[in-house]
Amino acid sequence: MMLSNMGEKKLIERLRQRLTEAGLRAGVVADMGDDTAALQQPNSDKLLLFTCDMLVEDIHFRRQWPGFTWEKLGWKALAINISDIAAMGGRPTYALISLALSGNTEVDCIDQLYSGLLRCAQEYGVIIIGGDSVGSEQGVVIDVSLLGEVEKDRLIRRSGARPGELIAVTGPLGAAAAGLHILEQGDPSPEKGEELIAALLEPKPRLAEGQALAATNLVTAMMDLSDGLADDLPRLCQESKVGAKILADEIPAHPACQEAGLDGLEYALRGGEDYELLFTFAGDNLSAITSALEKAGFSPPLVVGEILRPEDGIQVHRPDGSTSPLPEGFKHFQSTA
């Protein structure tokens, strides 16, 4: 079977089963089903968090895009890993940076890349401690491995959602995907979508929001929206063994989409790389969740749906009363045949 037929979800489950069967699980609290691994630390009341994410040229970015800079690429490479730590309610600590580069890459480009990495590291409290570099004949690859920590009683996983709970996000969706559309269309005047393009090239991980939510001890499940609502919500539901109802008229499409003449709802549902947090909680706790976010200086949660029983599946409810299955989201493995 080709990866393009299997898809990322089934691949992860296949690898997860093999690792479980191998029996080498000492100290593992969370693994491939969550945004990061969470590991026991001897004589500590904190768990060690460990994640990695890579950016591959011509898959995740193109140097030909208007607005692309090596500095922004450095920022994004670290920011998307910090977002994983945020989704677990944790704090990032140390990072390793691995690079695959062509020999004809200008040294100044690498300096700019590290300017972006360091700018992001300083803003979010990360210390870069090293990494690896190799030659590449097929474009640039940046792979970041990031450590973090979280108090044991504040760890939030994807597996705690229960029927009847509310589903919410921390902010509007679809901006990054709309920005990608503008860049891929080669718009000669992309300034009409500057905010959307910025959301794609320099995402802002919701680290403080994740910590504020974790501190309430009222959030039952959480993850970051890296691949879009249509792709990520099923992952949360799979881990929690539940279904879900999404209210189409409550999905918070980013207002800049409409300003750029784009279908905000489509991008909000199926677009990725928003890096907002998707989370669940009992409806009775809405006021407490809202208060915690507002006290930390953030907007109230945006409720988009409700957790259902597993047999109900995942449904989109529209204002006219009709329902439909959740549309297909982003595919990581496209066939090149």
Keywords for this entry:
7-stranded mixed beta sheet, 10 helices, alpha+beta, globular, 60s Ribosomal Protein L30, Chain: A, 337 residues, Phosphoribosyl-aminoimidazole Synthetase, Chain A, domain 2, single chain, disordered C terminus
SSE topology:
Layout: H1 3-22, E1 28-30, E2 37-39, E3 46-56, H2 70-87, E4 91-101, H3 107-124, E5 127-135, E6 141-151, E7 166-169, H4 175-184, H5 194-201, H6 207-216, E8 219-224, H7 229-240, E9 243-247, H8 255-259, H9 264-270, E10 277-281, H10 286-295, E11 302-308, E12 314-317, E13 323-325
Parallel strand pairs: 4-5, 9-12
Antiparallel strand pairs: 1-2, 2-3, 3-6, 4-6, 7-10, 7-11, 8-10, 9-11, 12-13
Helix pairs in contact: 2-3, 2-6, 4-5, 4-9, 6-10
